[in-house]
């Protein structure tokens, strides 16, 4: 899916005008909008993106190698538990990605910041990809543990709903000839769909499911062995940085395309 497929000639001019106007807001938001300016964003991310990519590759590679080859097997699930080092980080990243999509939607609806719209458009496909990875690895894990590739329990079903929410957002923002209407409709869908996040999180507590309760919590000790916990956390950090790098790269590509389209349009108007 193209990172720039939803943009049309002339969009950059309106976006830049909107951003310039936004710098006249009240002082508490002036700094936020200054750093969210497309030019500032491109300069900052041009420096940041290689570092994010390097950390993502190092952490993901180290965490997966550690977990798949050197971490101990589980006393009940044996080596099948090693799928956890892909499945759990993918699930965490998919949930966090949708949370960021909801935050961008709030910024878009409340402050009408165009860069939030662009970021939301690019988060959708990346978040959907991580959700597919979560569902696919979970299916591989469930086959030897539960004897089936898929079970309609609360956690799996609510995660599938998250995937459809991502796809719905991707389709909706591209369904309108007027991009602003697409952005607004996508933002509303993202905010409505955010109700699925606590359902996914607490589904194992609210209903009887095949999934075990959370092994890692903020309020208690982890039930995982330390030798299994560290590679899992390292892989999760790598997934998070990888998600950030992909979204920033797609957003940069979208903004650069807008600049090129604006320049080409300006030259065409001058030639006419």
Ranges where pLDDT stays below 50 over 5 or more residues in a row are: 1-29
Whole-angstrom Rg:
21 Å
Give the overall average pLDDT.
84
| Number of strand elements | 0
Task: Name the overall outline.
Answer: globular
Q: Report the end-to-end length measured between terminal Cα atoms.
A: 34 Å
Total number of helical segments?
9
SSE ordering: HHHHHHHHH
Profile the largest sheet: none
Helical amount:
over 70%
Percent of residues in beta strands?
under 5%
What structural class do helix, strand and pairing data support?
A: mainly alpha
Would you spell out the secondary-structure blueprint of this structure?
Blueprint: H1 11-22, H2 27-35, H3 38-70, H4 84-111, H5 114-146, H6 154-173, H7 179-193, H8 196-206, H9 226-271
Helix pairs in contact: 3-9, 4-5, 4-7, 4-9, 5-6, 5-9, 6-7, 6-8
Description:
The chain is mainly alpha-helical and 272 residues long. The chain has a domain at 84-212 and 239-271. It is 76% helix and 0% strand. The chain has 9 helices and no strands. Helix 5 packs antiparallel against helix 9. 35% of the residues are buried. The model is unreliable at 1-29 (pLDDT under 50).
Please give a quick description of this structure.
With 272 residues, the chain is mainly α.
Descriptive terms for the model:
mainly alpha; 272 residues; 9 helices
